[in-house]
Amino acid sequence: MDISLNIMTLGAMTVAIGRIVDDSIVVIENIYRRMSLTSERLKGKELILSATREMFMPIMSSTIVTIAVFLPLAAVSGPIGELFTPFALTIVFALMASLLVAITIVPKMGHAMFKNGIRKKTSEQEHDKPGRMAGFYQSVLKWALNHKWITFGAAILLLAYHATSIQEIVDTAGIAKGSLYFYFKSKEDLLLSLLKYYYDLLRSTINIISQDTHLSSRERLAKQMLAQFEFLTENKDFIMMLMHESSLYSNETFRQFGLWVQFPIRSMVLPKNCGYLWGRNKVESV
């Protein structure tokens, strides 16, 4: 997809690095938790498959949500889209790879590491008793679940706050505005570069014909003219585009390179059998 290793892709890897390991941590932690329970009936491979399947939907949902946040950046058009598309796609591919590793490689490694079981706690209560931080989080979570409407209203207020535009935040903070410059070749420069390419290509063809000693001067001239006419015919779309680009008429480079277009056409309409001798800006009778 023509994505290289640059500042944007490296930045995307930095942003995604924490999220990449989360899926694997969740899966291996659930496997360890299930194996630590004294009431667990499943053993070995069946336990690992069950623990992985138990976590599959949560980690897949979180991955889809994160992808839905970053993937629209790849659909932005213009220079901004070209700048942020590698960033967005790098994060998306990293998260998809993280999900794949979490449900394939991690269970396999867990089965290999825990094939002899784990060291049991002295009691099930010792394992199940939450720590101070976990106890605080548990109480907050229970309160939020028991007061759904208050939690929902607080979420709406937070969303309304986040609806504030970036420009409003910047103006309030008094951050100075900056500028981003992109330099592109103008249409005139592109046409002139194409014209020079065709000019050099046709000139090399004419020079090769002029060095053919097996032909008479008249035959060489006729072959040179034929090569010019064939070249004009094959590239008529480009010639028409040049003719309609009025901004080039005042360009000296265009007038110099344009001789290979003008003189073959003029030689077709002269009453005598005429041809253009390459390198000399005039039409001579043969």
TrEMBL record:
One Pfam assignment: ACR_tran
Q: Which GO terms describe its molecular function?
A: DNA binding; xenobiotic transmembrane transporter activity
Where does the HTH tetR-type domain start and stop, copy by copy? 144-202
Membrane-spanning intervals of the chain: 55-75, 87-106
Q: Name one GO cellular component term.
A: plasma membrane
Q: Which residues bind DNA?
A: 165-184
Keyword Oxidoreductase among record annotations: no
Task: Fetch the InterPro entries from UniProt.
Answer: Acrflvin-R (IPR001036), Homeodomain-like_sf (IPR009057), HTH_TetR (IPR001647)
Keywords of this protein's UniProt record, alphabetized? Answer: DNA-binding, Membrane, Transmembrane, Transmembrane helix
What name has this protein been given in UniProt? Putative transporter protein
